Model the fold of this input.
Amino acid sequence: METAFRRISVVGAGLIGGSWGLALKRRGFKGAIVAYDRPPVLERALALGAIDEGAPSLAGCVREADLVILAAPVGAIVAQLAEVRAAAPSGALVTDTGSTKRAVMARAREVFAVGSPLFLGGHPLAGREQSGIENASADLFEQARYVLTPLAPEHLADPRAAAFVALVRSAGAEPFVTGAAAHDRALAYLSHLPQLLATALAGVVAGQERRDVPLELAAAGFRDMTRLAESPYTVWEDVCASNADNLAPALEAMIRKLEAMKLKLGEGGLEAEFDAARRLRAEWRSSR
Done:
């Protein structure tokens, strides 16, 4: 792997941060990968070969980095930006993997000035319902979109940003450039709403008497629809809070749709709903 980055710092060696390390290692990255996280997480990441060394502090992790990947929850990323800005070399690129972008980008705009490290917002549209370094994979980003949200369009022409785009592609992902507000609105419908629907469905079933709804009768449909219900709240707490203004109307639209479908149950009038859903799925498949 040819890259301008020689020392990459990963802040948060969980599912995404660990997968970045594993992906880089598998593709022949010859530099050093250093991470900052809780000691047990760092021990596991070292054992898996996702990182080369662990750092005892955030500042120590990023001090000599060419590339800093902030892979913590959104709230933690926002809180870390000022310290990262102060500690990282001025020639470094700093990026994040936050699932919502507006709060991160707003804080980055305040913190990163001319002459400081370059900040490039990011969000890999890849993940698993189970978090943690033990679920990290070198193939996590394969055939995934990787959202990039620059503070200014011209930043994408910076050699550091170009090197990161090349790194994203080498990991198997395809960059997709958009604004923070557009990202958050779209992901409210395409990612955050599905998570809440899976959680709600599992919650509805959990509230039924097991003798009336035995789980032994659950098959592929229930399995597929509730896969996301395995996601821990710690992963989604910041996402829901930081995107509540987009997620609330998405939930309201879903409630209206369900109410309309409920009224049609006895009338045999659901064919149009099924047809529209199948067309949307076909469109999504072709976009992949």
